[in-house]
Design brief:
This protein is of the alpha/beta class. It is built from 10 helices and 8 strands. Strand 1, helix 1 and strand 2 form a beta-alpha-beta unit. The protein starts with 7 loop residues before the first strand and ends in a 26-residue tail after the last helix.
């Protein structure tokens, strides 16, 4: 089939040790191809912890250098496909996106800015949180969301800090964590980590639990499609966030 329209090009900045977000993003975006394609650039991220060495991975210059490489492909938007702002503070992504745009001239967004936009759009106030992180990182995430008016009513975490290992958490374990969090009846459950294998199990869990499941890989893509005004209906089978209207899910039976 010939495709004559100008394609939408999405650029994504990827943690170097991440093995999930690229293939899973490609799987999610496949129904939009060739009208939309996704392209990646990496910078070094290997550990998630609340220490100076770990936090220094997210200094601006290495990220901006990776963004400049992406800009050579003339993307319509650049996204930071990582969740560091959830514990470093949401303003860190606001500053990063502004710096990316200033350096490259390309509009920018991020995983966490996409999640926060979704939470507002969906009217979420009671949040369930699932991550692979350590307890102290988890507490920092919950504190940041509490300060923004979101109560974390239940959480589960895997206690890991090695970024590569996050991809080794089995889908069955992620599903179990979501089911345990769902017992508190949150308005939505967020799987916060773009190296966690949540995107393809989220739709079935939504139907089973009657609760929106907002996976990081999926909501990063959602934010890019929202920014470029792409029709997301072809992706509706991947979760409620891609529906034309964010109507309430049916109650689980």
């Amino acid at each position: 089939m010939q495709y004559d329209k100008k394609p939408i090009l999405i650029g994504m900045l990827t943690p170097s040790s991440n093995t999930v977000l690229e293939p899973y993003t490609a799987a999610l975006a496949a129904p939009l191809f060739p009208g939309v394609s996704v392209h990646f650039s990496r910078f070094r991220v290997t550990k998630i912890a609340l220490d100076e060495a770990s936090n220094s991975q997210f200094t601006l210059e290495p990220i901006l250098q990776a963004a400049e490489l992406l800009a050579d492909a003339r993307p319509d938007v650049i996204a930071w496909n990582g969740t560091s702002a959830s514990w470093l503070g949401f303003d860190s992504d606001e500053r990063l996106c502004a710096a990316i745009t200033e350096r490259t001239g390309v509009p920018a967004t991020s995983a966490i800015l996409g999640l926060n936009r979704l939470l507002g759009t969906m009217g979420v106030r009671r949040l369930g949180l699932v991550t692979p992180y350590t307890a102290d990182v988890q507490r920092k995430i919950m504190a940041n969301y509490a300060a923004a008016g979101f109560e974390t009513v239940a959480e589960r975490h895997s206690g890991r800090s090695d970024n590569f290992s996050f991809a080794e958490v089995p889908e069955a374990e992620i599903a179990t964590m979501c089911r345990e969090v769902a017992a508190a009846q949150p308005d939505a459950i967020a799987i916060v980590c773009t190296n966690m294998r949540g995107p393809l199990i989220a739709p079935e869990l939504e139907q089973e639990l009657g609760i929106p499941i907002l996976d990081s890989v999926a909501f990063t893509l959602w934010g890019c499609l929202d920014a470029t005004e792409v029709d997301m209906l072809p992706l509706r089978r991947f979760g409620r966030m891609f529906a034309s209207r964010l109507a309430p899910l049916p109650a689980s039976t």
